[in-house]
Write a structure and sequence with these properties.
The chain has seven helices and 20 strands. By secondary structure, it is an alpha+beta fold. The strands form four sheets. Strands 7, 8, 9, 10, 11, 12, 17, 18 and 19 form a nine-stranded antiparallel beta sheet that branches. Strands 6-13-14-15-16-20 form a six-stranded antiparallel beta sheet, with no helix packed on it. A three-stranded antiparallel beta sheet has the order 1-4-5, covered by helices on one side.
């Protein structure tokens, strides 16, 4: 059980007198510090000190303090903050949705089919690799690489996530329609804008994409008329670390100057905790590692360039 003073401030918009009584009780318990009310009183038995009934969480989070100020402003100034928000045309257009009643009768969902879909009955021929064309199926096939502690999950289009134990290294939302999250590489300078070396998240209409699932790694291929990109992802069997190697091959007769960028969203938290409070993990920010090289026009001069 956790009691948060800012929750009392939000409730003041509905029951101001009872919220004021809550504030008085919290202050009597010592929940008020020099900077105002603290973050929470934690009554979890495992977090309490010996002989104490609760553990004070003496922190001050800016967004909770802001929520408190806005809620109290609504109480003291007759909903002035709500009027400011509704003055925006975009929010005002959605305001009628706030007054809709919840449906009384919810139609029943149709019963699921008795057996698996027909395509699930088809068995693949046994083999050590599987070639998958990104975008060919409504639900992208998924491949998991792991050493038992560190795991990387990848879709055929390049989306995926990395985890160490139960903690998420990179952000992930299981959205089969968008598949917008993962560790991605981009090429900038080849054409207008930055294009990804996988089909997601920024594909190039002039490129051809493919992927291969191996037993110990996943390979992604992107081909242009004058350039090839081959990306390999694998997990170390000894250490809790993943490797991503990008190989670029110049197929034309002229030098190409491009910039290789990588980006991913760091969470370093359990997926459920990050989904509940993504702002807590955003303090680390996305990681960008830019690099630039000039690729020779002759395959004998440079041939295959590798960036790890």
């Amino acid at each position: 059980l956790v009691i948060a003073p800012y929750a009392a401030a939000l409730a003041a918009q509905l029951a101001p007198r009872r919220a004021a009584a809550n504030f008085a009780a919290l202050q009597a318990l010592g929940a008020r510090d020099d900077l105002g009310f603290i973050e929470a009183l934690d009554y979890t038995p495992s977090r309490r000190a010996l002989g104490e009934s609760f553990a004070p969480v003496v922190t001050f989070m800016a967004h909770h303090q802001g929520m408190t100020i806005l809620a109290l402003a609504n109480v003291l100034r007759d909903g002035v903050v709500r009027s400011w928000a509704l003055a925006d045309a975009h929010i005002e257009a959605m305001a009628p949705l706030l007054h809709e009643r919840s449906p009384r009768n919810v139609p029943k969902l149709p019963a699921p089919p008795a057996g698996p879909p027909p395509q699930a009955l088809k068995r693949r021929a046994p083999g050590l690799l599987r070639e998958v064309l990104p975008g060919a199926a409504a639900l992208e096939p998924t491949h998991v690489l792991s050493n038992g502690r560190y795991s990387v999950t990848l879709r055929a289009n390049g989306a995926g996530w990395s985890r160490w134990g139960t903690s998420g290294v990179t952000r992930w939302r299981d959205d089969a329609l968008r598949d917008a999250l993962g560790s991605f590489f981009y090429l900038r300078g080849l054409r207008a804008g930055a294009k990804s070396v996988t089909q997601h998240p920024a594909p190039d209409s002039a490129a051809t994409y493919g992927s291969v699932f191996h037993a110990d790694r996943v390979s992604f291929d992107a081909s242009w008329p004058d350039l090839q990109a081959h990306t390999t992802v694998w997990v170390s069997p000894e250490d809790d670390i993943e490797f991503r190697q990008v190989e670029l091959r110049n197929l034309g007769g002229a030098a190409i100057e491009i910039e290789l960028l990588s980006a991913f969203e760091v969470t370093l938290a359990e997926p459920r905790a990050d989904e509940a409070h993504p702002a807590f993990s955003n303090r680390s920010g996305a990681q960008w590692r830019p690099g630039c090289r000039r690729w020779c026009s002759s395959a004998r001069e440079a041939g295959l360039a590798s960036v790890r």
